[in-house]
Amino acid sequence: MLAYIIRRILQSVLVMLVVALVSFALFRFVGDPINSMVGQEATIADREALREQLGLNDPFLTQFATFIGRAVQGDFGISYRLQQPVMELILSRLPATLELALVSGVLAFVFGVGFGVYTALRRNGWLSNTIMTVSLIGVSLPTFLIGVLLIWVFAVELQWLPSFGRGDTVQIGSWTTGLLTPSGRASLVLPAITLGLYQMTLIMRLVRAEMLEVLRTDYIKFARARGLSNRAVHFGHALKNTMVPVITITGLQLGSIIAFAIITETVFQWPGVGALFINSVRFVDVPVMAAYLMLIALVFVIINLIVDLLYYVVDPRLRVDRAATRH
Amino acid sequence: MTDALLSVRNLRVEFPTRRGILTAIDDVSFDIMPGEVLGVVGESGAGKSLTGAAIIGLLEPPGRIASGEILLKGQRIDNLDAESMRRIRGKRIGMVFQDPLTSLNPLYTVAQQLIETIRTHADISEAEARTRAVALLDRVGIPAAARRIDDYPHHFSGGMRQRVVIALALCAEPELVIADEPTTALDVSVQSQIIDLIKEICAERGAAVMLITHDMGVIAETADRVAVLYAGRLAEIGPVREVITAAEHPYTAGLMGSIPTLTQDNARLVQIPGAMPRLNAIPQGCAFNPRCERAFDRCFRDRPDPIDRGDGRKVACWLYDAAGVAAKEKADV
């Protein structure tokens, strides 16, 4: 088990290095950051001086090594555009994104599993068919369109919920949260639904398909033949077996929720890292872009690791070393 | 026979399909006495497993009981609501399935599955249920049961898993155990051990057994009576000694003839020509008529009902109908 974790962590480090290389190399080609940093009147000498000062004239490998060395210490340099340390910028924006992602992830998981189980058990009920049909919308409509539609219905027409921003936030240490104020919670509803709808339908369809598969297995038949109640058969025996693949997908989806928050944050002007990234792209703010990509990669890598470890908890067959010592 | 433990009366199981209704079990009747072992034999698709599934109320939709009755100690159980039937499953009728590798839930320990089942049917504490579970595992021959009980199914071999399955089927002390080909998926070397175990442990508890198999050898060693199914119909039923030594239905005779024996010196094994008809192409009259060497005109015209031959034997064959035999003799002249 320990050896397995160490091996997985080493693999993760390798993945991070590759991502660092790609993001670093990629951003060398998106444009000259100097153009957006200096005014119209700057002379060529001024530009050259700035270039030298930022280390942009060093050989590629030197620049990359410096980048890695600093990144490990959490130092991604100074934003070209805002002249603030990148890490500070990201950390100040991260709570907004994580809160949004977490809430929509939980929504997607809870409703996805719930609807999935329901539609699998009542396969031909009218409500199941309705849910399945409506879920097609969630799968096929692009996120920004759903966001705009929700704003139109609930913010513009019904005026129930705010259409943009985070509402009032409360500062807890270095973390700002909107969950503790009424306006913060109200502001979270529409973006969370927008961001989570696709994931919810995905999880729901996956749970349904897996559950139908599991309900056909011999051990479910045998559980019924032993007279176990429907509840025990469906939720004790079937659901647990359903969850093994669902955990993987849900975990990986949590990563994409954080990554895809870019679109939702843009639509709802949500002050998170996604919006920061979009603005950075516009101004060729390479340090911010690089740090953002590294952050997303880190999130994916960590989630993957957790998902793999969760397997061990759910599926005893994977606890190989224990079985090996037994026999 | 009012003292029968289980009575199946004119059971008919149908599968509605797009191209019409398939009758998988057609007018099958038999009784199982308390404590008796009834062997049910037949080829694949003869309706053996479906009969078991119908009795325990686990026919897979769209399959359904179209007519007939199933009585457990005189009480009808084929038309019970889901909850009443659930209380009978496990508690009064236990079931052992074919493949022990897939019968156990891989994510729960043997202890969890046993305790859950015991506590579903008996109002006892977890600790008490665990004591019972260990005793039961010990009884079915799991070595070091107290320690192995907390293992997961994948820690056990196939034969051991089937022992666990038997323990699970018996843990609420049912009066009837339906064993659906319990040894088919096992190594030959452990097959007889499992069959002996089922027979012993059920005899000990006074439980009757309905042993579904296509292995005549197993039937000969284990069963008290045997029912032979063919194309969803009952061909012959009777005490196992008599049926084996003096099979009356030509199909049963064919089955017996196809068992290799040590004393035989035939170069080739005797076999019944042809194959069992598909459910949508069962011929008129007797379902066995295309393969029967002794068929005569009446066999192609009328369907034979089981004819009572006395001493508990019944056979569905016109050869044993007095009028039919007379008709045949007349035709032969």
Keywords:
heterodimer, A: about 325 residues, mainly alpha, MetI-like fold, two-stranded antiparallel ribbon, 2 strands, about 0% strand, disordered C terminus, B: about 325 residues, alpha/beta, Rossmann fold, eight-stranded mixed beta sheet, about 35% helix
Would you write up a description of this structure?
- The complex is a heterodimer of chains A (327) and B (333).
- With 327 residues, chain A is mainly alpha-helical.
- Chain A is 76% helix and 2% strand.
- Chain A has a two-stranded antiparallel sheet with strand order 1-2.
- Chain B has a domain at 6-103 and 173-193 and 200-281: P-loop containing nucleotide triphosphate hydrolases (Rossmann fold, 3-Layer(aba) Sandwich), CATH 3.40.50.300.
- In chain B, 35% of the residues lie in helices and 22% in strands.
- Chain B is built from 13 helices and twelve strands.
- An eight-stranded mixed sheet of chain B has the order 6-7-8-3-9-10-12-11, sandwiched between helices. Chain B has a four-stranded antiparallel sheet with strand order 2-1-4-5, covered by helices on one side.
- Chain B starts with 5 loop residues before the first strand and ends with a helix.
- The mean pLDDT of chain B is 86.
- At the A-B interface, helix 9 and helix 10 of A face helix 2, helix 4 and helix 7 of B.
